[in-house]
Amino acid sequence: YVERTLAIIKPDAVKHAEEIEDIILNSGFTILQKRRVHLTPEQASEFYVEHYGKLFFPSLVAYMSSGPVIALALARENAISHWRMLVGPTSVTEAKETHPDSLRALYGTDQQRNGLHGSDSYTSAEWEVRFFFPDSIVEPIAVGQ
Ligand code: CMP
User: Fold this and answer.
1) Can you tell me the ipTM of this complex?
2) What is the tally of helices (H) and strands (E) in the chain?
3) Residue 118 backbone dihedrals phi, psi, to 5 degrees
4) Structurally, how many domains does the chain consist of?
5) Which ligand 1 atom minimizes the distance to the CA of 48?
6) Is residue 47 part of a domain?
7) Ligand 1 pocket check: which of 90, 93, 103 to mutate, most ligand atoms within 8 Å of Cβ?
C-alpha cells in the first residue's frame, strides 16, 4: 500500500540536492512536502532522541545542526523500505562495498556524515514527518488492510 516516509538530505549532501531529488523522482516517489531548515542543536537532539546516550550522539547533534538540511515527505508503495534500500547502509564504507548505487555510496562521506536519513518504521515515519511538517493537514496515508 501507499505510505509516507521522511527523507533528510544532510548538511554535507545539500550541495547535491538537485541530483538527489531527480533520483528520488525517477525511483517512483512523489515529493509531498519539502522544507530547507537549519536545525538548532536542541531541535537536532529532539529529532534523534532515540540515540540519546550513545557515544556518537553529541557529534551527531553538532553535525546535524552545522548547516541547513532538506527534509522531504515522500510517498509511494512501501515508501519506508524502498527509501531505506535506495539510501543504503548507515556506514558509507559498507555502502560503497555492497551497495555502490545507493545514495550513501554516492553522496556520503563516513559513518556519521552519511548524506541521507530515512525513517526506519511506520511509527517513526509518522512521527518524523510531523516533526518537520507539523502544520500538515494530510491524514496518514497508510491504512494497513
Ligand atoms: P541516520 O540514519 O540519520 O540515523 C542516526 C544517525 O547517527 C546515522 O544516520 C548516522 O549519521 C549517525 N550514526 C550512526 N551510527 C554512528 C556511529 N557509529 N558513529 C557515528 N555516527 C553514527
Assistant:
1) 0.96
2) 7, 4
3) -145, 140
4) 1
5) 5
6) no
7) 90
Reported as a single tens digit per residue, the pLDDT across 80-95 is 999 999 999 999 999 9
Domain that holds residue 93: 2-36+71-132
**CATH number of the domain enclosing 95:** 3.30.70.141
Active site members: 117
Q: 41 in a domain, yes or no?
A: no
* Residue 81 is assigned to a structural domain of this protein: yes
Query: CB neighbours of 13 closer than 8 A, spacing ≥ 6?
Result: 20, 107, 108, 115, 116
**What confidence score (pLDDT) does residue 135 get?**
82
Distance 57 CA to ligand 1 centre (A): 8
Residue with cell string 550541495: 15
pLDDT band at 145 (very low <50, low <70, confident <90, very high): very low
pTM of the shown model: 0.94
Q: With a 6 A CB cut-off, is 90 part of the ligand 1 pocket?
A: yes
Residue 112 lies in a domain: yes
